[in-house]
Amino acid sequence: MKVQYGYLEDFIVELRSSGRYAFSLGEVRNKFEQSNEAIKKALQRLKAKGEIALVRNEFYVIVTPEYRSKGVPPPSLFVADLMKFLNREYYVALLNAAAYYGAAHQQPQSFSIITTKPSLRDIIKDNLKINFIVKKDWSEVDITKRKVDTGYINVSSPELTALDLVYYYEQSGGLNRVATVLEELSEIINIDKLIETVSRYSSVTTVQRLGFLFDEILGLKDLSGPLKDYLNSVNHFPVLLRPQKEKVDMITGNDWKVVQNIDIQVD
Length: 267
Prior knowledge:
- α8 (about 190-200) runs parallel beside α10 and α9 (about 205-215) packs antiparallel against α10 (about 220-230).
- The protein folds into two domains: about 10-65, Orthogonal Bundle (Arc Repressor Mutant, subunit A), CATH 1.10.10; about 75-260, no CATH class.
- It is built from ten helices and eleven strands.
- The chain has helices at about 10-15, 25-30, 35-50, 80-85, 95-100, 160-165, 175-185, 190-200, 205-215, 220-230; strands at about 20-25, 50-55, 60, 90, 110-115, 125, 130-135, 145-150, 150-155, 240, 260.
- Helix content is about 35%, strand content about 15%.
- It is an alpha+beta fold.
- Strands 4-5-7-6 form a four-stranded mixed sheet. Strands 1-3-2 form a three-stranded antiparallel sheet.
């Protein structure tokens, strides 16, 4: 049985009282015994007043007064609802994940979410940029639950975050920024968990690059040593630190078999 509300505002107040910042058009239709046209006009009115914002087709976020100047609340407050709406597995990744561990260095300009296929269009609006990165799969063991004001969200562990930062270095602001964040992130990386995560990670070249950065750039021997032992147990071949199309001499001169074809500057 549908519940009749006098005003759409009442529905939004109820959502906020239950700790939510988002809702779908389908939810509104289920709550209101009104025509689609009437609901559409009511939503447009609230959108025009800046009280809600359309983030994805048929998915809205509630813009409370403290976020009115930005136009939207932080993605962390609605990402769980958004991914449930999209019916996708996900985790918050890269610089945004690092930020939850105090290793962002700088405030990320976008919000990175790793999810499953098929690809999703990025969300780009005035003060909101959500990047969706597709990955075939991952282990739930490498995902942590982080508390936010609206409940819990999925975030990559420090160990998975380190690997993803290297693998998706372009989406992470380049290798200089990656190295800087890795230095801060290294303080909370558990080496035993790192080796376990590495054994599940699909890209051996990423492990080589991560080990090289820890060892040759950051001097973190306590982290690089066990990674070197791991690599000695699997097949691995010479690789460029930064992938490029132009051919270069693949003589590495280091145990990681990594050709340093870019100078790394750590802030």
